[in-house]
Amino acid sequence: MANMTARNQTKAGRVFDLLNYALLGLFSLIMVAPLVYCAVGSFSLTGMAYGRFTAFSLDAYRMIFQSGKTLMSLGNSFLITIVGTLINIAMTSTAAYALSKKDLPGRKWLLRVVVFFMLFSAGLIPDFIVVANQLHLKNTYWAIWLPVAISSYNLIVMKNFFQNIPESIEESDRIDGCNEMQSFIRIVLPVSKASLATFSLFYAVGHWNNYMRPMIYLDNSNMWPITVWLRQIVILSLGGMGNDNMSEQEIVWAATDAVKYATIVVSTVPIICVYPFLQKHFAKGVLLGSVKG
């Protein structure tokens, strides 16, 4: 730390820091600019037509919140995200805890299977055949939750994190008569809050932004999340065809640019609001499990 401070006091160090700040600032601007443009366009009467802001208007947001379809899709997104994240964390943490035990029978082969599926996937068509035809999960949220219940990458990182927990902590609990499950719930999970919070954020963002699986497996528009509804709005704004379940009034207002931008803002703000609450756990949770113990 002392060497780093001394280097940064030199002219070369200050120039290096300045270039870093400028580069990171440029990247931040590139990422924020589209969202700012959408936010401004959502308050414009014509939706920033030809890149110009016209009269200030809240009509787009008024139309969104007056539409039962948009509010319903937001509710569906919250349901998919919350339940899906709980399933992900429950299955990933229990599997990672089991794989962190070196005396687990067949542990090496199980880890090889996990790594294999981290690098390769069966593909969309076999996935659809299994989920829709064999398991008959089409038009249910289980088709979205179960096939992605465990991420191989998150499983490996969490396993490494559990391996770094001193065995003496668990042994002291077993002396009191606790079994593996009680030790996992009472000892391991409480000391793993940073890791659990981090991967909860990863899973939640994935569920909230996912539109491919709902679009494939959910034919009922009343079950659509906000991402699929937003896709429908974008298609309408480009002159595409609407869904048969949409009314004429919904097709007319959904095709306007202002409403399209407002829907993007409404669908983005909820997941952005989650970051400040988990930010303090983010770096710590990933780094603790990224180094093999």
Describe what you observe in this structure.
With 293 residues, the chain is mainly α. Mean pLDDT is 80; it is low at 248-255 and 289-293. It is 72% helix and 0% strand. The radius of gyration is 24 Å and the shape is globular.
Q: Any chance you could write out the topology, listing elements then pairs?
A:
Layout: H1 2-9, H2 11-42, H3 59-66, H4 68-99, H5 107-119, H6 124-134, H7 142-145, H8 152-163, H9 167-175, H10 180-188, H11 193-209, H12 212-217, H13 226-237, H14 248-254, H15 257-272, H16 275-290
Which features would summarize this protein structure in a list?
single chain, 293 residues, mainly alpha, 16 helices, 72% helix, 0% strand, globular, disordered C terminus
Query: Pairing-aware structural class of the strands and helices?
Result: mainly alpha
Count, helices: 16
Shape: globular
Helical fraction equals over 70%
N-to-C CA distance: 24 Å
> What string, H for helix and E for strand, traces the elements in order?
HHHHHHHHHHHHHHHH
Strand content: under 5%
Report the sheet with the most strands, covering strand number, pairing sense and barrel closure.
none
Query: Radius of gyration, rounded?
Result: 24 Å
Overall strand count: 0
Uncertain parts: 248-255, 289-293
Could you report the average pLDDT, rounded to the nearest whole number?
Answer: 80
